[in-house]
Specification:
By secondary structure, this protein is α/β, with parallel strands linked by helices. The chain has helices at 10-21, 33-41, 50-53, 66-77, 96-99, 147-157, 166-193, 201-204, 207-213, 220-229, 231-253, 264-273; strands at 2-6, 25-29, 59-62, 84-87, 107-113, 134-139, 160-165. It is built from twelve helices and seven strands. 30% of the residues are buried.
Length: 277
């Protein structure tokens, strides 16, 4: 299999390394020349212009910033020879119109590997990043996914496929990814606000604090892009979270135990049973 990867950051770089590990021939492109040099040391071919290697690959993985994905898909479609475009964007709704422009000899595989780190860049990429994690396979109504192709990618990434309707993807991300980032970041800001009274707080923070705040320490520029792209779903989910916290606050102020806290162990166990935690 010959695959090209456009965007060699944490996710794109990790996908490229996983493909190399699987024995695939991998071409790469990134706007950062230093990243290109680093990628070459791992065996990723970067000595040919992307629009030249695009003529000779079976698939092109698109792992660029969200606001560039539309332009890149159109550029790939204009590049000539057909191939499968593998879009790994974390928000899909903004690409609906662009997806509709993909026709034979081009094909689309829209996936979303549910893995990451609080750090960015090719230097932190890892061929094993996606192993044991779910990978969403985003299905558009009326378009049947190539099951053999999907299984091939799951084998390369070491992931478990979860088939998700296109219409539900972004709303689901608002629940399990985007609002959790805001909550995590809020805890960091809250802790810092106590700094003048309790300057020792960073030294006494335990693993619970570190676990909860890991995602909140991610690059805010990346998250601003994601949250803006999924604004309507985040707005709804964060409003629901705020309402829940207000209810809990009322209970706590009155010395009551929020009733919902009795359910959290069972809820968490569901994610472990499903293999997503």
């Amino acid at each position: 299999m010959k695959v090209g990867v456009i965007g060699l950051g944490l996710i794109g770089g990790s996908i490229a390394k996983a493909c190399l590990k699987a024995g695939w021939t991998v071409f790469g492109y990134d706007v950062n020349a230093e990243i290109m040099k680093s990628a070459a040391t791992f065996g990723i071919s970067v000595d040919t212009r992307w629009d030249e290697w695009a003529q000779n690959v079976d698939q092109i993985v698109l792992s660029t910033p969200l606001d560039e994905a539309d332009g890149w898909i159109r550029a790939i479609l204009s590049s000539g020879k057909g191939c499968t475009i593998v879009d790994v964007s974390s928000v899909k709704g903004t690409l609906s119109d662009t997806y509709s422009q993909i026709h034979p000899p081009f094909a689309l595989l829209s996936i979303h590997p549910m893995a990451g780190k609080e750090v960015r860049g090719f230097a932190h990429s890892d061929a094993h990043l996606f192993e044991g994690r779910p990978c969403l396979v985003v299905e558009r109504e009326g378009i049947e996914q190539d099951r053999k192709l999907v299984q091939g990618w799951m084998s390369v990434l070491g992931s478990t496929p979860v088939w998700v309707p296109f219409s539900q993807h972004d709303a689901l991300m608002g629940i399990v990814s985007h609002t959790p980032y805001l909550v995590s970041a809020a805890i960091l800001v809250l802790a810092e606000s106590y700094g003048s009274r309790f300057p020792l707080w960073p030294e006494v923070a335990g693993t619970g604090f570190l676990d909860v705040t890991r995602i909140g320490a991610s690059d805010p520029r990346l998250w601003e892009e994601i949250l803006r792209a999924n604004h309507d779903n985040v707005k709804e989910t964060f409003a629901a979270f705020t309402h829940l916290i207000q209810e809990w606050n009322e209970d706590i102020q009155q010395g009551k135990w929020p009733r919902d806290l009795r359910q959290t162990v069972a809820i968490r166990r569901k994610t472990i049973t499903d293999g997503t935690a």
